[in-house]
Design brief:
heterodimer; A: mainly alpha; 2 strands; globular; B: alpha/beta; about 45% helix; about 15% strand
Chain lengths: ~290, ~425
């Protein structure tokens, strides 16, 4: 009787997770394996391919364009993640304070997340326009925000931080609000000021959320594509200085029709993200606090 | 356990069915002999013209229905390739010179040699519809040339005579300088583009991009290199914006807003420009391209002439009906409807005037474009073009931005094309 009950329970369990597992298999796992297979093939038009071993990877590692794109992706991370997460934390604390119209501010900061990334990029692109853009006319400068090779990634980073900071702040805000008031009361009784409270209570208590935000932001930054694609046209002389790995993938795969080589780029990106995430998981033991 | 399997199978079936519904391409035959066809194009400006043509056909053949679908140029080729891979191409679709060899040589397109009236189309129109084996894989649709578009108002302000067919590159430079000095606006806007840019100058100068059997590039040929140098260095003049400018505003947009007096534009764009920007009426004028002053060969005249064609899949299920429709599209009647709609210049010889007449509501004389077909050069293409196209354009950008010296850049372009073409 007991065994039967158990089997029944298990069956219902499988039924419940079935659709998700099926979706994962069809939409994630199978394409992933297929990508690995493609990365070992020379592809021709219309799905024809031929196994070539590691040739695509050897071509890739010999290509300066590829290393430039890898560097661009990493540099983009460096530009966006620390600043973005720091600003999000700052914003979360400010939004948590007792100010008038708190919920209006929360909505305003969250709005960029609701707007389609393509629309965001289009508007910013016009604001950064060197000839007619509002930013140059306000500053009285003629900076080539989008076409100067040494500036273009900073410009993209600004837009990226702008559009993600509200979302991250809301996540962090929910973490901050979960911290029990009694910790702060006890701390102030012991004479700890707001700064001391921030570093000894808020940061450790919100660290699990902070960790999630960090991981998500790093992955998103390493995979950045739509923003740069929209901001940097293919006629832009700064293209190679802004081209991220995913942009290079897009151009190889869908414009040049070189899907095998493009798949090798994807696998490389997956490995890169894997390594970075593994390092974060090892590092988290030192600073993330899961005890409440 | 039995139940689990059933449910799993059911879910799987549902998922697969949903997947199939998602990618319907070809339409089929209805129960009452009704044939539904899909017709895919990329230019929304030509939708009405294409619709008029389909209506003329379906009026005579009430058992056929044709649905015109528009997909943007960028998505068009991604979509079409996916459709071809899964054997679900639309019944009729536009084919472009850039891509036709890839599709034709891989056996994706139906041979339509038997329905094309070859004596009614120019050699360029026919070669734009040919596969590498010389058979016709498309019915010629239209033809175009590249012209010099100029802003009459800026010419008047600067007191410069309008361009005529005797203009040379030197006149182009002098006029640009005068306009810049007098009005502060840019003269001729030369930017990184092949068909609407340096290709024209290269062929005018007697050079070539690909040799006659399309196996080798010609970037390092002296006449080609000379024309490329002339064209690229135009941006060093004060009267021409540099490439960073064009990365942020297209030359067409700069022209529209009166920032520049001249640029190269294809004939397919003039009517939509006027329709969408009524304020251009009276300002926009068209001239023949200036000629090379001292060409290595030829008389210095050339313009890149391209053309589209209508194609269908090799495995189309309604081949008889589709071929009948295609035959109509390529007939004098079908081509006349296309021309009268102003969509494009009909490929059919002798119908050029229908396109010129479509401009009757506007103050512009486009008849100057028609004689240019006499010295038109077929748009550059070989089977590996999709592979080298972006790489060559990246290399050109590097020359513009100074990352690569001109001679080195040309050598790189030569190598890129030669290597891709050798495969």
């Amino acid at each position: 009787m007991k065994n039967k009950q158990r089997g029944n329970n298990m069956m219902w369990g499988y039924i419940m997770v079935g659709p998700t597992i099926l979706g994962l298999l069809i939409l994630n796992i199978y394409p992933f394996i297929d990508t690995i297979r493609l990365s070992l093939s020379a592809t021709k038009a219309f799905g024809a391919y031929e196994f070539v071993g590691l040739q695509n990877y050897m071509d890739m590692f010999a290509s300066t364009e590829f290393w430039k794109a890898t560097w661009n992706s990493i540099w983009f991370c460096v530009l966006t993640v620390p600043v973005g997460v720091f600003l999000a934390l700052l914003l979360a604390i400010l939004l948590n304070a007792n100010i008038k119209g708190k919920s209006i501010f929360r909505t305003i900061y969250f709005l960029p997340m609701v707007v389609a990334p393509a629309a965001v990029a289009m508007v910013w692109k016009w604001m950064f326009n060197a000839e007619f853009g509002i930013i140059n006319s306000l500053l009285g400068t003629r900076i080539k925000w989008i076409t100067d090779p040494s500036i273009v990634l900073f410009t993209c980073a600004v837009v990226s931080v702008w559009s993600s900071v509200g979302y991250d702040a809301i996540l962090l805000l929910s973490g901050i609000q979960n911290i029990s008031k009694s910790y702060y009361e006890a701390a102030s009784l012991d004479g700890a000021g707001p700064i001391k409270q921030f570093f000894t209570i808020t940061i450790p208590m919100v660290s699990p959320t902070l960790f999630v935000v960090l991981i998500m932001r790093l992955m998103a930054s390493l995979k950045v594509y739509d923003l740069i694609y929209m901001m940097v046209d293919q006629s832009n002389p700064a293209l190679t200085d802004a081209q991220s790995l995913m942009y290079l993938f897009y151009r190889e795969s869908f414009i040049a029709g070189n899907k095998g080589y493009a798949s090798a780029i994807v696998i490389w990106t997956v490995l890169l993200i894997g390594v970075v995430t593994a390092i974060q998981f090892i590092g988290q033991k030192k600073w993330v606090n899961y005890e409440v | 356990m039995k139940n689990t399997k059933k449910i799993a199978a059911g879910t799987l079936a549902a998922v697969m069915a949903a997947g199939m519904v998602g990618c319907g391409g070809q339409s089929g035959t209805g129960s009452n002999g009704q044939v539904n066809l899909t017709f895919q194009i990329w230019d929304v400006g030509q939708r009405d013209g294409m619709q008029a043509m389909c209506d003329a056909y379906t009026a005579k053949n009430p058992n056929v229905k044709i649905e015109v679908q528009v997909t943007s140029w960028n998505e068009y080729w991604t979509k079409l390739e996916a459709a071809a891979t899964s054997q679900k191409m639309p019944d009729i679709f536009w084919m472009h010179t850039n891509e036709i060899l890839k599709y034709a040589d891989n056996g994706m397109l139906a041979d339509v040699s038997d329905i094309v009236e070859t004596d009614k189309f120019s050699d360029i129109s026919l070669s734009n519809a040919q596969g590498s084996d010389g058979k016709l894989y498309g019915v010629p649709k239209d033809k175009d040339v590249i012209c010099l578009a100029y802003n009459k108002e800026l010419f008047d302000q600067a007191g410069v005579a309008y361009p005529d067919e005797n203009w040379t590159w030197d006149d182009l430079v002098t006029a640009s300088q005068t306009i810049y000095d007098a009005t502060g606006k840019y003269g001729y806007m030369a930017y990184a583009d092949d068909q609407l840019g340096y290709w024209n100058f290269v062929y005018q100068n007697g050079g070539y991009i690909l040799n006659d059997d399309k196996t080798k590039a010609g970037f390092t040929q002296p006449a080609t290199a000379e024309a490329m140098e002339f064209y690229i260095n135009l941006q060093k003049n004060d009267w021409c914006p540099d490439q960073t400018y064009f990365a942020e505003q297209a030359p067409g947009a700069a022209f529209l807003s009166g920032q520049g007096a001249m640029y190269l534009e294809g004939t397919w764009n003039f009517l939509p420009m006027l329709q969408n920007n009524p304020e251009l009426n009276g300002k926009l004028a068209v001239a023949a391209l200036p000629k090379a002053p001292s060409p290595a060969s030829g008389d210095g005249r050339a313009t890149i002439s391209n053309g589209l064609c209508y194609a269908t899949a090799a495995n189309n299920k309604n081949m008889d009906v589709v071929k009948d429709v295609l035959k109509f599209f390529g007939s004098e009647e079908g081509q006349r409807i296309q021309g009268e709609s102003g969509a494009a210049i009909p490929a059919y010889n002798g119908l050029e005037q229908t396109w010129v007449d479509a401009f009757k509501d506007y103050d512009i004389d486009v008849s100057i474009c028609i004689p240019m077909f006499e010295y038109g050069v077929q748009s550059v293409n070989n089977a590996s073009r999709p592979e080298w196209k972006t790489k060559v354009s990246d290399e050109l950008l590097k020359i513009y931005s100074g990352q690569v010296e001109l001679q080195q850049g040309l050598q790189n372009m030569q190598d890129i094309v030669d290597q891709a073409s050798a495969k």
